[in-house]
Amino acid sequence: MINYQDKVIIITGGGSGLGRAAADSIAAQGGKLVLVDMNKESLEESRKAILAHSTDASVEIVEANVTDEEQVKNYVQFTLDTFGKIDGFFNNAGIEGKQNLTEEYGSAEFEKVVSVNLNGVFYGMKRVLKVMKEQGYGSIVNTASVGGIRGVGNQSGYAASKHGVVGLTRNSAIEYGQYGVSINAIAPGAIMTPMVEGSLKQMAGDDWEAAGKEFVSVNPMKRFGKPEEVGNLVAFLLSDAAKFINASVIPIDGGQSYKY
Q: What are the recorded Gene Ontology BP terms (predicted)?
């Protein structure tokens, strides 16, 4: 059984989507949470939703931009000041960016997406790994994507950044396994989150729901994944039950990435 009693977990991108789903799963198992997001209102909504399911949960929130290393340092220090340790880190904050052919993809847009999806992951790992190395234990789960293990048309910035997350995950896992720290990545496919809904709207406009049905028709499971399904996977990977899983990139996409 997974037990999060007295475990302290940081979750970036905790204001919605996969971050909120993972937080809900971990809180239900007794974990203490520090949720990080740029949007304070969404953080408050996450805390309210979690406490509605887990009335005894401990949920702290920190408004922060993961692309600012000083703000990353601050959310890590806040966690230490509040709880004295960091058992797990769901390094999840990310954006999709605009869709376009590579030749037409704006340089500023590329840099923005990479700044959030890759630099933000690096800054978080840099600060949290120092703490976990000194502790002699800890678990990190980074959010990559199926776009990080194969190409995704019209999304140069997103695919490049998520491939970078995969490389950073595996490299750091090799470095820090000896200190009792496990580092893995998840590679979600079509999970019905606000980000995926936004992607469909970029592609199809008002016909996005029909486009979504067509998109999942080629999935072996013929449906979108649910955020809670990803949240449960993250909760497992951050738990003591998964300590010997290290340097893995785990697709959660209904088998779609293996079909091509």
A: bile acid metabolic process
